[in-house]
Design a protein that fits this description.
With 305 residues, the protein is mainly β. The chain is 5% helix and 28% strand.
Length: 305
């Protein structure tokens, strides 16, 4: 087996076409690995969104870069990117090989993947399955990588070379792709990227029209205060609600209070009549005696001897 490369190392590729194979050991709790490729120009960015080859767009329009089907081998599971290097357009300077991870239809991190490595094989005419041209073990660095650039195939003079990269992204495949100029709409991982210069169909359908002639405004008629009676009917006067009654179980409003009576044993209010046992008012004074009044003569029986 060829010796594994160190991160950042590079080797020449003596081949006209290659297969970049991502291989890992499956098992309970181990995410699946999805291989993808980005065709970059000399500025390090894609020329259009068609330069993104992944599970929802598995074939480049040129047919020269393709994503193959998942495959089980003796060493585990594989997902493969095939590239015909000598036929690629001269504007393609690099082919980046990336991986993203998924478990139970959700994003997963690289540290959950067992024995992930990238192997580059000669896929030219007449090439036999044998030792890989390059081999690199992809290992996590932060434990938060949900996508990673495993390696890149780049031009060097008249030939091509492979570099071991191992650069992780915590933002998943979308975050990785946008770093290289891919336009990603919402739900990109569930559909293909919109072609460069075109608006996604979902966004175009949701965008409101700006043509004033296409906009109509409906004003509802004002509601009458009372429904109009039908012809021949006598208008019904609204019935006034009865006065509110006290709720059941609550005391009714109190009647007017009667004049308070003095309590027994307490002083009674003043009266013109004298109270029993209290001094009576003095009677009117008697007339003065007449000084000229004389007793009549007394009889002999009243004369003292």
């Amino acid at each position: 087996m060829k010796q594994a490369m160190l991160k950042g190392a590079n080797v020449p590729l003596a081949a006209t076409a290659v297969r970049a194979v991502l291989r890992w050991t499956p098992g309970p709790g181990v995410p699946s690995v999805d291989a993808s490729a980005l065709l970059l120009g000399s500025q390090g960015r894609v020329r259009s969104d068609e330069d993104f080859v992944f599970y929802n767009q598995p074939r480049h329009p040129s047919g020269l870069v393709r994503r193959l089907a998942l495959k089980r081998v003796a060493e585990g599971m594989t997902d493969t990117i095939a590239a015909d290097l000598t036929s690629l357009d001269a504007s393609v300077d690099r082919v980046v090989i990336a991986a993203s991870f998924e478990i139970n239809n959700g994003a997963a991190t690289l540290d959950l993947v067992r024995d992930l490595r990238i192997l580059v094989y000669d896929a030219g005419p007449g090439a036999a399955e044998g030792e890989p041209l390059a081999l690199f073990d992809v290992k996590p660095e932060t434990g938060e990588e949900t996508a990673v650039i495993c390696g890149e195939i780049y031009r060097r003079g008249d030939g091509w070379k492979f570099r071991a990269v191992g650069q992780g992204y915590p933002t998943g495949l979308i975050g990785l792709a946008t770093e290289f100029g891919i336009s990603v709409d919402e739900g990109e991982e569930e559909g293909t990227a919109a072609p460069a210069g075109e608006e996604p169909a979902q966004a175009a359908a949701a965008r409101p029209t700006t043509d004033p002639s296409a906009v109509t405004t409906t004003v509802p008629p004002p509601s009458p205060p009372f429904p109009a009676p039908a012809q021949g009917q006598v208008p019904v006067q609204p019935v006034q609600p009865p006065p509110a009654q006290p709720a059941y179980g609550y005391p009714p409003s109190a009647p007017p209070a009667a004049p308070a009576e003095p309590a027994y044993g307490y002083p009674q209010p003043a009266s013109a009549r004298p109270a029993y046992g209290y001094p009576q008012p003095a009677p009117a004074a008697a007339h003065a005696p007449d000084p000229n009044f004389r007793l009549p003569p007394q009889g002999p029986q009243f004369i003292r001897a």
